[in-house]
């Protein structure tokens, strides 16, 4: 049910009143508005629009927090709390270890396991919020969305969901520039460098 990765991050925006905090967005982002020019400004890209909705949702979450939180007092722990809050809007079923469907990518029978936000949705969401925080005046060194605890939490969610759904998340390994080195070796061999490469060249 990986399709939820694309929509998991957007679900809570509508559910928590994504249209409601638009006035907040105007206050915070008003400094960067360019609507005063005569020429009509192009509509924002899908990424920019989604980032703005996510930012508004997070600000509304802070306002509704008990006790209310200000952005300056927000920490990585609050960001993790926010991600757990978003699970109620998730569309990805994550099986518990006692469930017969645990570890099966395509279970044949329904179960009562809870729906949660997919790891991909949370990872993309945090990336957008991290950018939005700095775009709205936050300092990179104090960015709560880039905190180590947030990265650890996301890694744990990825690993647990991979086990529960039987879908491994393979980390892409960076390929060494072996081709470039081989080419360099061939050039050296052709000019009388390494004997083996020189033999291959012949």
Can you put this structure into words, describing what you see?
The chain is an all-alpha fold and 202 residues long. Helix content is 50%, strand content 2%. The chain is built from nine helices and two strands; from the N terminus they run αααααββαααα. It has helices spanning 4-7, 11-15, 22-29, 46-64, 76-86, 119-135, 148-165, 178-190, 195-201, and strands at 92-93, 115-116. It has a two-stranded antiparallel ribbon. The longest helix is centred in the N-terminal third of the chain and has 19 residues, at 46-64. Mean pLDDT is 75; it is low at 1-10, 14-35 and 178-202.
DSSP summary, beta strand count: 2
The largest beta-sheet arranges its strands as 1-2
Structural Rg: 24 Å
Low-confidence stretches: 1-10, 14-35, 178-202
Mean pLDDT: 75
Distance between the termini: 55 Å
Kindly name the structural category.
mainly alpha
Largest sheet: 2 strands, antiparallel
**Total of helices:** 9
């Amino acid at each position: 049910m990986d399709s939820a990765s694309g929509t998991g991050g957007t679900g809570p925006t509508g559910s928590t009143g994504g249209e409601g905090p638009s006035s907040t967005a105007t206050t915070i982002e008003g400094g960067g508005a360019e609507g005063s020019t005569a020429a009509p400004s192009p509509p924002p890209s899908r990424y920019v629009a989604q980032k703005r909705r996510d930012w508004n949702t997070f600000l509304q979450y802070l306002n509704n927090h008990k006790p209310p939180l200000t952005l300056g007092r927000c920490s990585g722990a609050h960001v993790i709390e926010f991600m757990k809050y978003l699970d109620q809007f998730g569309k990805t079923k994550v099986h518990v270890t006692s469930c017969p469907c645990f570890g099966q990518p395509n279970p044949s029978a329904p179960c009562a396991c809870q729906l949660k936000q997919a790891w991909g949705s949370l990872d993309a969401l945090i990336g957008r919020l991290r950018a939005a925080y700095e775009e709205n005046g936050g300092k990179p060194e104090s960015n709560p969305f880039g905190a180590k605890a947030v990265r650890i939490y996301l890694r744990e969610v990825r690993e647990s969901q991979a086990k529960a759904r039987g879908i491994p998340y393979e980390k892409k390994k960076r390929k060494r520039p072996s081709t470039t080195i081989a080419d360099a070796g061939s050039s050296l061999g052709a000019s009388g460098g390494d004997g083996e490469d020189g033999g291959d060249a012949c």
